[in-house]
Structures are given as structure tokens and as C-alpha cells.
């Protein structure tokens, strides 16, 4: 009788814990061949997990579900040679092969807006192929690292970032060592096809997301360890609240169409080592209130993730440092 009264609570606790543990699962969608480094994802609504991603060898791949897998969809480097580029992960090949990073799909027209770190800001139609470059410079200053993209679905206006006006993607370490703060927030107006600079002097802006009503954008500053909310007023954006202060925030994605909640890929400091960083996904609402944190250490260790995106109740995770797309279910 004594043992029963002692074990019962433990049995209950065990059941509760295993229910929590079994509710979380993680799987990998392996990239083909020697492909690696998915930086961002763009999903097609109304499909069974079809998405686009840009990889280290300069290709934009499209995933068409488990039975088809990945197909080559597009590229931004005008002279990209498949035999020279496919499968490479060498940073020195980037200027030849391209490096697509940020991307966002305009659902109505199926136009995919893309930032290529070397070839600038462009767009791809539903048939794919070479990216049509729309802009490589704003206010006379070339983009050095076109990085994060989001499209406002009702208007098709596109918001994107140039992480630095000085350092390209290969010069990340130098940019970090000088705490580069020359990044810009830009807007592409689909009506007049013009790009305007909304904000300058940003601290390595990696990600951007616009709200449903186009009243504000969230912009992450990777070196500044913060995500800011910037009120849009015509072409004169207002300086802004800091809505999140986790280190090294990267891409920001709306959690669901019609809902102004956002997922930010970021990091937290490992308490044991005090210096290393562990990858996390953070869901915030439009006022920056933290809704949920997902700790990705179990699957990524100290590897940083660049994007956490929700689709059909699962989280899809991109990282420049791995050869798969993570799928987290909870
Ligand atoms: C991957 O790279 C290795 C080494 O360059 C090469 O031998 C191999 O054929 C590549 N595999 C594919 C599937 O491209
Ligand atoms: C692509 O090739 C053409 C013709 O050889 C050359 O003029 C051009 O500079 C090349 N562009 C790039 C980005 O390498
Ligand atoms: C912002 O950057 C510009 C150059 O793009 C520079 O002239 C200006 O001093 C900077 N402003 C601040 C507040 O740092
Ligand atoms: C951002 O966070 C990293 C990691 O904790 C730290 O090394 C760096 O100094 C921070 N940068 C700023 C501007 O506070
Ligand atoms: C780096 O730059 C950011 C933004 O300009 C600034 O807030 C921060 O204090 C700087 N950090 C260091 C360590 O200089
Ligand atoms: C965000 O969540 C907080 C706490 O629940 C709430 O007070 C706030 O109104 C929410 N903001 C928005 C814009 O929904």
C-alpha cells in the first residue's frame, strides 16, 4: 500500500512528461546532391508543403513534397554554369554562381521576390529560370548584401534590406569586428517600379516583415541584437520601438496569413559556456509581446539558424550551415 501511494504521483508525472516529449518531433528534409545552406524559405499557399529556398551554390530550389522532392527553379547569376557551380559551397564561387538569400512569394501573381547577396534584388515568375534583376542600387549606392525580403500581399509592395553598404556576405567577420552599421531598409513600389531608401545606418539588418495593413515593418539588426518596429508613414518612416532583444536576430516571417504574429530566428547565450550561442525561434505579436520560444539546441547544437517559418502548424527551419530544412512539429 505504501509503495502504491508513492509511485502513483511518479507514474502520473512520467505520463505527463512523456506526453510533452512525444508531442515534439523533428525531421529533416534533405537537400539533393551536394546542395547546402538554405537561408530562407517561401511557401506556396494551398499546397502540401511546397516551398522555395536559396542555397550556397547559387540555385533557387523548389520543394514539391516528398514524392517529387527538389527541382531546380531559378538563379540570379547571369552566367551561372551548372557544371561549375552545382554543389559548391565555396564562398569564393559566390560572385560567379550567385547566392540567393531572402525570398518572399506574392501569392496572387505567384511572383517570387528574391535578394541575391551578389546580384541584388529581383523577381522570378511561376515558370522560374533566370531572376529578372529589378534593382542593384538605391540613391546611387549599390547593394553590397541584399538580404531579407517580404512582400505586402494586398499591394505587392516589397520591403527588403541591404545588410551593409560596405561588406559583402563573405566579409561577415570583418563587418562584425567593426560593428558595421551601414545597412539599409528599402521599399520597392510595384506601381512605379522604384526603390526608395526608408532607413539607413542599420546594424546589419538581416530580416524584414511587413504587417497586414502596411502600417509597420519589423526589422532585425543582427549585430545590434535587436528587432525594431518601424512605423510606415508614406516614405518617411518613424523611429521605432525595440520589440525584441535576443542576440543575432535574422529572418522574420509572419506566423500565418491574416495574423500579425511573427517568428524571428535568433539565438540565446548558452548559460554553461557563457559565450556560445544556441539557436532559437521566437514568436512575438505585433507589440513585441513574446508568445512562444522554441529551443532548437537539441537538433542544431551551436549552429545558428537563419529562419523559422510556420506553415500548416509546423515550423520549418533554415540554416546557412546545414544541408537540410528542419521540420519541427509540436
Ligand atoms: C558531391 O561532391 C563530390 C566531391 O566534389 C563529388 O564527387 C560528387 O559527385 C558530388 N555528388 C553529387 C550528387 O553531385
Ligand atoms: C557574363 O558573361 C558576359 C559575356 O561573356 C560578360 O560580358 C559579363 O561580364 C559576365 N557577367 C558576369 C556577372 O560575370
Ligand atoms: C548615417 O549614415 C550616413 C551615411 O550613409 C552618415 O552620413 C550619417 O552620419 C549617419 N548617421 C548617423 C546618425 O550615424
Ligand atoms: C550582441 O550579442 C553578442 C552575443 O552575445 C555579443 O557578443 C555582442 O557584443 C552583442 N552586440 C551588441 C551591440 O551588444
Ligand atoms: C554597434 O552598433 C549598434 C548600432 O549602431 C549600437 O547600438 C551598439 O552600441 C554598437 N555596439 C558596440 C559594441 O559598439
Ligand atoms: C500582444 O500581447 C499582449 C499580451 O497578451 C497584449 O497585451 C497586446 O495587446 C498584444 N498586442 C497585439 C497587437 O495584439
Termini, distance in Å?
38 Å
What summary fits the major beta sheet? Answer: 5 strands, mixed
Radius of gyration: 20 Å
Strand content of the residues, in percent? over 45%
Could you tell me which ligands this complex binds, including any ions or cofactors? 2-acetamido-2-deoxy-beta-D-glucopyranose
| Strand order across the largest sheet | 2-3-4-5-9
Return the structural class: mainly beta
Total strands: the figure is 27
Shape by Cα distribution: globular
Mean pLDDT: 92
State the helical fraction: 10-25%
Specify the number of helices.
Answer: 5
Describe the protein in words.
The chain has helices at 2-22, 82-85, 94-97, 172-177, 297-300, and strands at residues 25-30, 41-43, 50-54, 59-64, 70-75, 100-106, 111-116, 120-124, 129-130, 132-135, 137-138, 141-142, 146-151, 158-162, 183-189, 194-202, 205-210, 216-221, 226-231, 238-244, 252-256, 259-269, 277-285, 290-295, 307-311, 314-318, 324-329. Helix content is 12%, strand content 46%. It is globular, with a radius of gyration of 20 Å. It is mainly β and 330 residues long. It has a domain at 28-103 and 112-133. The chain is built from five helices and 27 strands. The strands form seven sheets. A five-stranded mixed sheet has the order 2-3-4-5-9, with no helix packed on it. Strands 1-27-26-25 form a four-stranded antiparallel sheet, with no helix packed on it. One 2-acetamido-2-deoxy-beta-D-glucopyranose binds at residues 179, 181, 203, 223-224. The site of one 2-acetamido-2-deoxy-beta-D-glucopyranose has 4 residues, from loops.
Amino acid at each position: 500500500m505504501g509503495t502504491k501511494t508513492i509511485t502513483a504521483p511518479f507514474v502520473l508525472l512520467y505520463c505527463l512528461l512523456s506526453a510533452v516529449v512525444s508531442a515534439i518531433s523533428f525531421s529533416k528534409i534533405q537537400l539533393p546532391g551536394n546542395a547546402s545552406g538554405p537561408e530562407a524559405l517561401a511557401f506556396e499557399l494551398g499546397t502540401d508543403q511546397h516551398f522555395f529556398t536559396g542555397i550556397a551554390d547559387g540555385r533557387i530550389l523548389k520543394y514539391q513534397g516528398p514524392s517529387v522532392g527538389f527541382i531546380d527553379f531559378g538563379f540570379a547569376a547571369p552566367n551561372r554554369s551548372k557544371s561549375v557551380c552545382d554543389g559548391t559551397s565555396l564562398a569564393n564561387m559566390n560572385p560567379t554562381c550567385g547566392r540567393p538569400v531572402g525570398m518572399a512569394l506574392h501569392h496572387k501573381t505567384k511572383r517570387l521576390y528574391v535578394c541575391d547577396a551578389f546580384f541584388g534584388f529581383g523577381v522570378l515568375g511561376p515558370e522560374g529560370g533566370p531572376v529578372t534583376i529589378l534593382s542593384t542600387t538605391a540613391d546611387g549606392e549599390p547593394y553590397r548584401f541584399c538580404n531579407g525580403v517580404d512582400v505586402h500581399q494586398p499591394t505587392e509592395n516589397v520591403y527588403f534590406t541591404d545588410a551593409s553598404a560596405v561588406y559583402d556576405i563573405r566579409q561577415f567577420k570583418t563587418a562584425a569586428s567593426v560593428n558595421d552599421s551601414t545597412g539599409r531598409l528599402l521599399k520597392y513600389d510595384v506601381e512605379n517600379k522604384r526603390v526608395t531608401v526608408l532607413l539607413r545606418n542599420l546594424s546589419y539588418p538581416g530580416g524584414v516583415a511587413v504587417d497586414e495593413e502596411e502600417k509597420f515593418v519589423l526589422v532585425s539588426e543582427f549585430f545590434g541584437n535587436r528587432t525594431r518596429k518601424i512605423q510606415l508613414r508614406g516614405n518617411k518612416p518613424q523611429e521605432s520601438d525595440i520589440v525584441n532583444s535576443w542576440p543575432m536576430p535574422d529572418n522574420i516571417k509572419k506566423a500565418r496569413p491574416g495574423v500579425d504574429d511573427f517568428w524571428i530566428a535568433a539565438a540565446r547565450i548558452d548559460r554553461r559556456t557563457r559565450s556560445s550561442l544556441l539557436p532559437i525561434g521566437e514568436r512575438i505579436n505585433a507589440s513585441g509581446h513574446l508568445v512562444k520560444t522554441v529551443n532548437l539546441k537539441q537538433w542544431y547544437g551551436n549552429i545558428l539558424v537563419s529562419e523559422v517559418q510556420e506553415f500548416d502548424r509546423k515550423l520549418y527551419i533554415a540554416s546557412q550551415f546545414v544541408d537540410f530544412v528542419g521540420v519541427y512539429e509540436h
